[in-house]
Amino acid sequence: MTQDSLRDNIFASRQEAGDFVFDDKVASVFTDMINRSVPGYATTLSMIGVLASRYCKPGSRIYDLGCSLGGASLAMAHQISHRDYELIAIDNSTAMIERLTDRLKSEEHQGLPVTPKLGDICEADISNATVVVLNFTLQFVPLAQRQALIQRIADGMQPGGILILSEKIQFPDDDLNELFIDLYHKFKQAQGYSELEVSQKRAALENVLIPETIDTHKQRLMAAGLKNCDVWFQCFNFCSMVAVR
Ligand SMILES: C[S@@+](CC[C@H](N)C(=O)[O-])C[C@H]1O[C@@H](n2cnc3c(N)ncnc32)[C@H](O)[C@@H]1O
Ligand SMILES: O=C(O)C(=O)C[C@]1(C(=O)O)C=C[C@H](O)C=C1
After folding, report:
1. Whole-prediction pTM value?
2. CA 20 → CA 11, 38, 162, distances in Å?
3. pLDDT(2) > 90
4. Is residue 166 in contact with ligand 2, taking CB distance under 6 Å?
5. How far is the CA of 96 from the centre of ligand 2 (A)?
6. Are the C-beta atoms of residues 163 and 243 closer than 8 Å to each other?
7. 152: left (phi over 0), alpha (psi -120 to 50) or beta
8. The Methyltransferase domain covers which part of the protein (predicted)?
C-alpha cells in the first residue's frame, strides 16, 4: 500500500472537538478520505480531465486552486494530448504540496507540466488561464473573501476559458436540505464510516466548510463577468459547475 492510499480512520476514536485542518495526518490519508467522502469524486476528476482537454489552448495556463494531492491536476495532465501549457497547482497546506511534489517524481507522473506551489489562492497571480479548477476548495475560503477570489480568477482568464467549481452545497428548502444531508450520511456509512466518524467529522467541519446554494454560486460567478454558468454534475449535496469567461 502506498502512503497516499492509507485508510482514513482519523475520526474513528472518540476525541476532543476541534476544527478540521489539512495537516500531515489528513494529507497522509487524503486519497482514501476524499474518495469515500465525496460522492462521485472519481467521476468528477475524470470529467475535469475531459473538460480541460477541450478548453486548454496551447501556450496557456491551467490553475488547480486548492490542489491537495493533485487529483484534478493529474487527471487533467494525463488527458490533455499536448504539453504546451503550464499547470500551476496551488495549496496552502505544506503537507499536501510536499506529497504532490513527491508524486510528480514518480515514474507514472514524471515529465508532466505540473508545478506545485505553496500559497494562499486568495493572493495568487492568475493570468493567461484557459482552465481554472476549484475542486471542493471555495467552500473552505472565508465567505467575505469569495467574491474577490472569483473576480481575480475571472480577470486572469482568457475569453472562452472555463472555470470548474465543485462544492458541497446547501438547498434553499429546509426539508430538502435535511434529506440530502441525511442521504449523504447514509452514503458515508455505506463507504465504511461509522456513525461516530460521521458525527465527529461533521462537528470538525462545522466552522470550516461553509456551503452555499447553487443560486448564490451562480450569482457570484455572473457578478464576476462569467457566463454560460450551470451545473454539469450533482449527487446529493455535492455538485460541480462550469462557467465560461
Ligand atoms: C477538499 S480539498 C481539495 C481537493 C482537491 N482539489 C482534489 O481535487 O483532490 C481542499 C484543499 O484546499 C486547500 N485550501 C483551502 N483554503 C486554501 C487557501 N486559501 N489557499 C490555498 N489552499 C487552500 C486545503 O489545504 C485543501 O488541500
Ligand atoms: O466529509 C465531509 O463531510 C465532506 O464534506 C468531504 C470533504 C469536502 O467536501 O471537501 C471534506 C473534507 C475533506 O476531507 C474532503 C472532503
Report:
1. 0.98
2. 10, 16, 30
3. no
4. no
5. 15
6. yes
7. alpha
8. 62-161
Q: Which three cell numbers stand for residue 86?
A: 503550464
Write down the residue that cell numbers 475520526 correspond to. 11
Domains recognised in the chain with CATH numbers: 41-140+151-160+211-244 (3.40.50.150)
- Cell 467521476 -> residue: 43
Task: Name the region of 239 (left: φ>0; alpha: ψ -120 to 50; beta: rest).
Answer: beta
Secondary structure of residue 7 in the 3-state scheme? coil
b vs e for 87-124, b when ≥16 Cβ sit within 10 Å of the residue's Cβ? Answer: bbbbbbbebbbebbbebbeeeebeebebebbeeebeeb
Residue 76 has which C-alpha cell?
A: 487533467
Phi/psi zone of residue 3: left (φ > 0), alpha (ψ -120 to 50 degrees), beta?
A: alpha
Beta carbon of 205 within 6 Å of any ligand 2 atom: yes
- The reply to whether ligand 2 has any atom less than 6 angstroms from the CB of 240 is no
60 Cα: distance to centroid of ligand 2 (angstroms): 31
pLDDT tens across 224-244, in order?
999 999 999 999 999 999 999
